[in-house]
Amino acid sequence: MSRAFTCREMVELVTDYLENKLSRGDRKAFEKHIAGCPGCSRYLEQMRLTIKTLGRIESRHLSAAAKRELLDAFRDWKG
Ligand SMILES: [Zn+2]
């Protein structure tokens, strides 16, 4: 049973992923998507750096702005 996440779902899940809150199956699907998607891979790296900088994520807060940015970026990448 392989689930495939869309980029939009990935944005929703990235904080859970980094906080180890995903189920094993979701985690696998997440990592599979990351491996094949430069945009989400870059986003994950950004989130990692942000957490490192801030100590922890203010998920609600941060993701609203970050999400918008990312989704804008995806529009460019995917035409
Ligand atoms: Zn993606």
Blueprint (SSEs and pairs):
Elements (H helix, E strand, L loop, with lengths): L6 H12 L5 H13 L1 H17 L4 H20 L1
Helix pairs in contact: 1-3, 1-4, 2-3
The site of zinc ion has 6 residues, from helix 1 and helix 3.
Folded structure, characterized:
The chain has 79 residues and is mainly α. The protein has a single domain, classed as Arc Repressor Mutant, subunit A (Orthogonal Bundle), CATH 1.10.10. Helix 1 packs parallel to helix 3 and helix 2 packs across helix 3. The termini are far apart. It binds zinc ion.
Structure keywords:
78% helix, mainly alpha, binds zinc ion, Arc Repressor Mutant, subunit A, 79 residues
Helix-strand pattern: HHHH
CATH architecture label: Orthogonal Bundle
* Mean of residue pLDDT values: 81
Q: Given the C-alpha coordinates, what overall shape results?
A: globular
- Indicate the percent of residues in helices: over 70%
The CATH topology turns out to be: Arc Repressor Mutant, subunit A
Give a summary of the structure in a few sentences.
The protein is mainly α. The chain has helices at 7-18, 24-36, 38-54, 59-78. The termini are far apart.
